[in-house]
Amino acid sequence: MKYVVYYELIIIFFLLIIVYRLIKDTKNKHQEINSLKKRLENTSSKPLSATQFLKAQRKNFRIKVYNVPIELTITKCDNPKLQKLIGKKINGDIEDISLSGLKFISEFSLPIKVKFETDIMFFLKNEQFKITALLVRKEEHIKEKLISYGIQFEKMSYKQEKQLAVSLHKVETERK
């Protein structure tokens, strides 16, 4: 009889622990729900349209270009071991371009995990462009020795941006 009472006490103790944990978990879930509700209230109530979504994904529309050479000169590198690359000129061809950046292909391989600041120079519709930019993406092609790089324009004056917009418009209207 004495053992039965002990077993009952142990079972009651474990049940109390389980109930305590359930209550604690429930409180945590309620706090999480309330925090999500507050975040939801702070966001816009309307869902994004397809156009808004695409604009959020990519700031500017990219235009395909063909046979547009580019010369890239590395001006800064955040890795001390790669300082010897400063001043290195890399040649390639632009694949597509927008007001905020471009994609070009080259045979030269750079470690993209390192932050490279570059000066780029190219001609588009007989207009010369010299822009400071950052290397932001690298795509290696398996079948070819070519490597694609994503470039983000950094320091571009209003005049340069306007000039580029006019040139891009000319490229686009010639296709139509």
From TrEMBL:
GO terms for molecular function: cyclic-di-GMP binding. The keyword Lipoprotein does not apply. The chain crosses the membrane at residues 6-23. Keywords: Membrane, Transmembrane, Transmembrane helix. InterPro entries: PilZ_domain. Residues 57-165 form the PilZ domain. This is PilZ domain-containing protein. It comes from Filobacillus milosensis.
